[in-house]
Amino acid sequence: MTPQILTDGAFRAFYREHNPWLQGWLRRRLGCTEQAADLAQDTYLQYLTSQPTEPIIEPRAYLTTLAKRVLFNFWRRRDLEHSYLEALSASPAQYVPSEEERALIIDTLTTIDHALRGVPPLAKQAFLLSQLYEMPYHAIADQLGISVMTVRRYMKQALTACCLAIH
């Protein structure tokens, strides 16, 4: 099947027809008009890049599915940022990064988090124990109840996923 081609005029009509509803749907979940407007735009960007192969019979259901993904990513990034800032507040003042460095760090953490979604949970846990807590492989193996060889295999999976996500 070939992707559904949407002309500029057809997209504008689609946007005008569904955007008020979509922003209302998002506003009810977020409690904020401005964030709802931003995430609605992100949802339409997902719509434009998804290239459905079939005509969309239920546009609101399709937009809801896309918006749920956008919301999930928004909440996940917000939680990640909150955790990072909480950890940062415990750091001495001389080690606090600039706003630009914070933004880069949060973007990198988000990329790594996204990359690790594709690896098994134990591989993710082994990677985090190694990277965040600097645990040696034998200690990770003991904590997770697996062999050191399995820890090595998990580390390879996680590191490969991270490298592929960054490049």
Keyword list:
167 residues, mainly alpha, 7 helices, 78% helix, globular
Question: How many beta-strand elements?
Answer: 0
Number of helices: 7
Helix residue percentage: over 70%
| Beta strand % | under 5%
Commentary on this structure:
The chain has about 170 residues and is mainly alpha-helical. Helix content is about 80%, strand content about 0%. The protein has seven helices and no strands. The chain is globular, with a radius of gyration of 21 Å. It starts with 7 loop residues before the first helix and ends with a helix.
Summarize the structure.
This protein is mainly α and 167 residues long.
What is this structure's SSE topology?
Blueprint: H1 8-30, H2 33-50, H3 59-89, H4 99-116, H5 121-133, H6 137-144, H7 148-166
Helix pairs in contact: 1-2, 1-3, 2-3, 4-7, 5-6, 5-7, 6-7
